Amino acid sequence: MRRNIRGITAGILAAAVTAISLWGCQNVENNASNGEVSSTGTTAMGRYMESEVPIPEEIEDILGAAILEDGTYRMAAAADSSLSLWDSSDNGQSWEQVKSLDELVTTEYGYLQNGAVAPDGSVFCCVYENEEEDFDSISEDGQYEVKGTYRFIKISPEGEAEDIALELPDTELKGMSDKIMYAGKGQLLIKLVGDNRVFRMDDETGKNLAVYNEDDKYVTYFQTAGKRLYLYTEEGLLIYDWESGEKVEGDTALQEAIEANAENMQVLSSAGVPTVMCGGAQDKEIYYCNEEGIFRYQDGGSVVEQIADGKLNSLSKPSVELRMMMAAADGSLLVLVSDEAKMKLLRYVYEADVPSVPDTEIRVYSLNENKEIQQAVSMFQTQNPKYYVSLETGTKGGEVTVSDALRTLNTEIMAGNGPDVLILDGMPFTSYAEKGVLQDISDIWQEITQEEAIFENIAGAYKEEETVYAIPSRFKIPVIVGKEETLAQITGLAELDSTAKKLREEDEDVESILGVSSIYWLLKTLYGAYSPALLTADKSFDENAVIEYLTCAKELYELNHYSEEQLENRIATENTDVLFDGESYVDILNWYRGNIRMQALNLAGGYEFASLMTVCREKEVEFAASPLSGKNVFIPSTVIGMCSRSSQPEGAKAFIRFLFTQEPQSSNQGGGFPVHKKAFDSEVYADKELDLVSTFGYIEQDEDGVLSSLDVEIKKPDQEQYAQLTELVESLDTPSLTDAVVEDILLEQGGKCVLGEITAEEAAAAVSQKVSLYLAE
Q1: What's the confidence (pLDDT) of residue 1?
Q2: DSSP three-state, residue 711
Q3: Do 161 and 155 contact (CB within 8 A), yes or no?
Q4: What pLDDT, on the 0 to 100 scale, is given for residue 506?
Q5: pLDDT confidence of residue 644
Q6: Contact 428, 738 (CB under 8 A)
Q7: CA dihedral (410, 416, 422, 428) positive or negative
């Protein structure tokens, strides 16, 4: 029986909400205790501590969960392709499979789409059924067609299943549900795909009891807690009393606290939501949880209290996606999450004898947000509770320029107030080493190379004899994609340009020769592979090389035949979308549509490699290391260093050493391949027993309203492809230039050159002058 446990997920649109810092909100209190802070001496005591509740290893997904009235934990879960109910009567220490749900799906091509568990033990499910392997598609007239049907089924606490006919409106998607939740005994809340309203139903009769959001505000997701229904909308948080159906206007403190972080209002993944909520043991007590931590609120109150800091547990990990939250009778809180595609149940218990904040702080500094480091910080603190790792981002999400951030950092370091660990990406760390800012960490290098299997050609890129000041923990690989005979002609940047011109002469109709998402990404992608050529033998800036780089970039851009509308999206000369990484993007859509003949990109991970191998297989193209500079170039990422004036050298070294172990190395958040070889094998699926990695689906609507779709299966690379990539990695020996200020100067002038505002010679002269002034500072 073929099943897609999560079902069909509707397209997600992110609501645009003004971002305001949560800590700028006057009605939010940070308090890690149960409302009281005890102290011993000068150390504040009391903190919610995290532990993981073990769940059966075979469980692949959890559709719904609840703590029943007698304290039993119940989950509706998928395990080894079987759908079942699991119970635990000992707070999750052991689990029993109590009922199979397979009988709910009566057709070969059906699946359990979603479900919910009620406190009395009832389970309510939505089942998609189809007699044939004929899934939803686009019809000839461009309309979305649902080929099967949807059934709603209730399972009583005693295990009896019954079809329930819900009084729901007719929709084009035939009742496809977006989310089902229980608000209370017999009270079901359901939202349909394509409909912004939430309906309250009687789970026995199917009667429609109430409708919320009749104004049809766009709802990204909804939550329940106590007697409240919370709708996260494009206009903010809407709160209803679900029993009366009336909108609640008095909880402004809660609304302000949640709306202060724009990310709370958006859903960017089908695996979870930004905020989960539940009711507490006390009347009107509300808990909610997001990446910032766990918060408590009393309906109608004026204060939102933070009771657990997300920085001190797993909640701040970028890989963690929240599913649901539950409050137990003993005062503990349970949060169901998906972490690295694995289901986890986390328990938070208040412990009065633990310091509210660890007494040893390790300060880590990064110019830009680094999700791999965020992930590692959370992992490290969970395993080393005596440390508090504070992570500072110099550019503060783009609010501060790189130059200003570096000036501030340099001032703090010289004053003896610098961080302990430096994430050196974008920094002039060679200069830092020469000036004594960086600590020699050759002892850590010796430990890493003796105890871990790593790509020493990458990690040791900056090693000089017996001295090590910086160690890359990740890397990207510049590659060119095209026909085998095309790649054979490319031996440098000039040859890439001339080969592209020949392809254009051979094909005037194709939309693009070298795929270009924007001028910015074209310049940045070419820079990754070409930048070592910008330096002369004495390490000075080569103005002639800059002219070649900008001339070729301009000519490559002008070879494209884009419409005026497309050009509007491609003339950007700076990064206007922080969620899109154009340098690592495999342009599956345009390869499959035959719109491009080549692509330059910087491979950053296993999924991108699997996507590229799928394109190579289906479109009969090849990939090769980008030869633009004539060297075997890689782009170092998450480069680690230690400040020579660290106030916590022992903790700093422990954290750096941890960064190169397999666990944090195995978590790729888009920052590049890991240098740890076992983590690398997992990253490119070499040690995974699977064939299908994922599916790529795309639906678009033309100006006449006609829909078209593209569905691609991203498959695991085979052993030959894995060996090709590994051989390529082992041949890399030249790091790309990493100074962010120099790169920004070059991209700024490059953008003007490509747009025709200045010549390549004028741009090169401006680059040379600005870089000289910067280096003289």
Answers
A1: 27
A2: strand
A3: yes
A4: 95
A5: 95
A6: no
A7: positive
